[in-house]
Amino acid sequence: MEEKQIYNCLILGAGPSGYTAGIYAARASMSPVIYTGPQPGGQLTITTDVENYPGYPEGVQGPEMMEDFRKQAERFGTEVKYEVIEKVDFSGPVHKLWTTGGQEIHAHSVIISTGASARWLGLPSEERLMNKGVSACAVCDGFFFRGHEMVVVGGGDSAAEEAMYLSKISPKVHLLVRRDEMRASQIMQDRVKNAENIEIHWNTVIDEILGEEEVEAVRLLNRQTNEKTVLPVKAVFVAIGHVPNTQPFKGWIDMDALGYIVTKPGTTLTNVEGVFAAGDCQDRIYRQAITAAGSGAMAALDAERYLSEKGII
Ligand code: NDP
């Protein structure tokens, strides 16, 4: 019987952390294979200009940057497979994983870099007007609507940050908070409350986003009075948190209450030997392309040390 191939280094996810792990692992002769997951390129593929990634003085389009990352990983021999892992078994020294198609894969080391996804409101109008005024990233897309009134949904630090950012390019920002208080840190709350052109709408949610080809207005619902009002705006920024893409690893890998993978401080080590985590799936604070890439490099170095200690490479 033919023996099943065991990959030295299997990388899950193809965002900045996964591709960077691929570059490092390939250059260390670990023959890495990336399973991209459902969104090759990750969250950067749904953004436009990236201006804060060092090395691109003129800025770069998110999808183009991810193409560059992929090419660089492939140049050193990283294999990229456009498949999704839906199940794992980390009980033995050889890690087992299954694709959505049911194919079983074996690996000595696994780097989880599956990222996080923005949480959405779940309205059909939100989906229809996505990238036509509906966005989850003010820093990415706010510029396109500068000079117009905008809405930010959420009461956490992200929403507060988005509102502050937009208040510099918009005449008026409407911050919709679904309760009568914000979850954001006090300092961020103070900032939005003191900003002259940010209006906080308490106990308010979006009932519907209006417009056919682009956002024209939002219909607001006051949850206390049940009153509905229409507010003309050009853009809606949803900032109600992120969900880490860690579902397949539940029960195997230690996670916090929100589902973010817990790594040993200062490393990418998880509770399972030979399984490492990098990027947004283990980082709910920084969530930047550059920090994700940095931890991807760390994961490859940690995996390399593990494989050589085990005498595998
Ligand atoms: P949070 O989970 O902290 O906040 C989410 C906000 O969205 C809450 O106000 C929540 O309301 C609201 N919300 C959730 N679902 C809905 C919905 N369906 N409709 C309307 N509102 C909704 O997420 P953040 O992304 O803001 O922050 C995540 C973590 O990252 C936090 O720990 C935060 O402190 C940190 N962070 C830190 C920053 C910094 O330090 N500069 C910047 C950005 C984030 P409710 O309160 O009612 O649940």
* Total strands: 19
CATH superfamily of the largest domain: FAD/NAD(P)-binding domain
Question: Could you tell me which ligands this complex binds, including any ions or cofactors?
Answer: NADPH dihydro-nicotinamide-adenine-dinucleotide phosphate
So what's the overall shape?
elongated
- What's the CATH topology label of the largest domain? FAD/NAD(P)-binding domain
Uncertain segments of ≥5 residues (pLDDT<50)? none
State mean pLDDT (0 to 100 scale): 96
Query: What structural category arises from helix and sheet content?
Result: alpha/beta
| Order of secondary-structure elements | EHEEEHEEEEEHEHEHEHEEEEEEEH
Summed up, the domain count is 2
Layout of helices and strands:
Layout (H helix, E strand, L loop, with lengths): L5 E7 L3 H12 L5 E3 L13 E2 L9 E2 H14 L3 E3 L3 E5 L5 E5 L4 E9 L3 E3 L5 H5 L5 E2 L2 H4 L8 E4 L3 H11 L5 E4 L9 H9 L3 E4 L2 E7 L6 E6 L5 E5 L2 E4 L3 E3 L30 E3 L11 H21 L4
Parallel strand pairs: 1-2, 1-8, 2-5, 8-19, 10-17, 11-12, 11-17, 12-13
Antiparallel strand pairs: 3-4, 6-7, 7-8, 9-18, 14-15, 15-16
The structure holds NADPH dihydro-nicotinamide-adenine-dinucleotide phosphate (NDP).
